[in-house]
Specification:
298 residues; MetI-like fold; 74% helix
Length: 298
């Protein structure tokens, strides 16, 4: 019984510590609740959306929000130029934006971590070759590369995830390489080498756990920039294609109505701004919490 209580206490203490650290940071708390709400909306979009986001209803086109003159409680945030419910489209657009942001960052992170660990750990000619590849990718403007690929292949969510992931991995590779160059000189890595531990075991068990914190911080902030990039590409017509719903596509639909029907572009723009701010706030908090110098003072 005593062992069970001790085990339960050791499991609860880290969670209690994280909750305490989160509540101590106002920006971290705000960011967490924004991100939690966005993820919740994305997962349960089918339940939360009052209407089909792709269904046209020309009889109700360009209805203003409920609080404006001519507004109706039927459409809380109004309708667009084809009579589609703005609220429903924003809810479904959350799913698209998060999917592109998260999965492209995961792809970029996997490639960047593998390249960075191999380059930093082995050094020598392997490091030189891999870093020259990284430099080659950095020499190509990422937005130009993305535009060329999307112009060649049919734009879609899968193509968008892959092309963004393949352009953003270099950031992870350079950061991870720098971390590994420092970690591999520590005593516990040298001790593992001296007893004949295989390199892949050392990289997996000793080096990778020590770079996770840096990866989490970079990934969190990268999701925010990727959401903006996806919205920008969709705004240009090279991202998510109709009838699929995206916040950037909604901005495109509303740009010609800014003077007369402001809600078409305002609400998806606010959705992008709030989501990105929430992710940045959470990322800043994670950076402070995972910083070893700060952790040592807690």
């Amino acid at each position: 019984m005593a062992k069970k209580n001790k085990r339960a206490k050791s499991t609860a203490n880290p969670l209690r510590r994280w909750v305490r650290l989160l509540l101590q940071s106002k920006t971290g708390t705000v960011g967490f609740f924004i991100v939690f709400a966005v993820v919740f909306v994305a997962i349960f979009a089918d339940v939360l959306a009052p209407y089909d986001p792709e269904k046209n209803n020309l009889a109700d086109m360009l209805k203003p929000p409920v609080w404006s003159d001519g507004g109706s409680s039927t459409y809380i945030l109004g309708t667009d130029n084809l009579g589609r419910d703005i609220l429903s489209r924003i809810i479904y657009g959350t799913r698209i934006s998060l999917s592109v942001g998260v999965f492209s960052v995961v792809l970029a992170g996997i490639i960047g971590i593998l390249v960075g660990i191999c380059a930093g750990y082995y050094g020598g000619i392997i490091d030189n070759i891999l870093m020259r590849i990284v430099d080659s990718f950095l020499a190509i403007p990422s937005i130009l590369f993305i535009l060329v690929v999307l112009a060649v292949f049919e734009p879609g969510i899968t193509v968008l995830i892959v092309v963004i992931g393949l352009t953003n991995w270099v950031t992870y590779a350079r950061v991870v390489r720098g971390e590994v160059l420092s970690i591999k000189e520590r005593e516990f890595v040298k001790a593992s080498r001296s007893i004949g531990t295989k390199n892949r075991i050392i990289m997996l068990r000793h080096i990778f756990p020590n770079i996770v914190s840096s990866f989490i911080v970079i990934s969190t902030l990268s999701v925010a920039s990727t959401i903006i990039l996806e919205a920008s590409l969709s705004f240009l017509g090279l991202g998510i294609q109709p009838p699929a719903v995206s916040w950037g596509g909604m901005l495109t639909d509303g740009r010609n109505y800014l003077a007369t029907n402001w809600w078409l572009a305002t609400f998806p723009g606010l959705a992008i701004t709030i989501t990105v701010l929430g992710i940045i706030f959470l990322g800043d908090w994670l950076r402070d919490v995972l910083d070893p110098r700060i952790k040592g003072r807690k």
